[in-house]
Amino acid sequence: MISSITKSKIPIDFSYVLKTSQLEEILGRENIITDVTLEYWKPQIIGSIFEVHYWLPNENNPFNRLYIRAGAILKKDVYNAREGLQKEVLPEFVKWIKNIEQLEKSSPLNTERLFSGYYRNNKVFIVKD
User: Fold this and answer.
1) β-pairing, 14-16 with 65-74?
2) pLDDT digits (tens, 9 = 90+) for 34-50
3) 46-71 confidence digits (pLDDT tens)
4) I need a labelling partner for 110 at 20 to 30 A (CA). Which of 58, 64, 69, 96 fits?
């Protein structure tokens, strides 16, 4: 479930790669139960199209949550980037979060984590921990 969405204005020659409806559909279809905050942004790192921070409960929030930043890239690259996001990045994200959600709360593997998808030179790249 997406609990919050923030969308910043971007220059006219840029476009966001992720569509909110696309993320909502995946979260629902895959029964991902972790709360999501979604922020659309123009990243400082060129080509960052999908960045996910997995956060554990703390004194301000009593539950696990995902902070997702959806990046913008030049419009000329958005078609290829969306294809890579759909075919490679989002399926890997689903596997990644499903593995985390299956962990016991007390597991030493249940830690804060980062998942990132990048688009460079007409290819997508994934970095995760």
Assistant:
1) antiparallel
2) 999 999 998 777 789 99
3) 789 999 999 988 888 888 899 999 99
4) 69
Residue with tokens 């759909």: 86
Cα–Cα dist 104/19, whole Å: 32
Tens digits of residue pLDDT in 68-81? 999 999 999 999 99
Q: Which amino acid, one-letter code, is at 28? A: G
Residue 45, both tokens = 């790192």
Hey, which residues does 51 pair with through a beta bridge? 69, 116
What is the DSSP code (8-state) at residue 46?
A: T
Domains of the chain, residue spans:
2-128
Q: Tell me how long the chain is.
A: 129
* Residue 35: per-residue pLDDT: 93
Residue of 86, 88, 73, 89 whose CA lies nearest to 121: 73
Residue 15's Cα: distance from chain center in Å?
Answer: 16
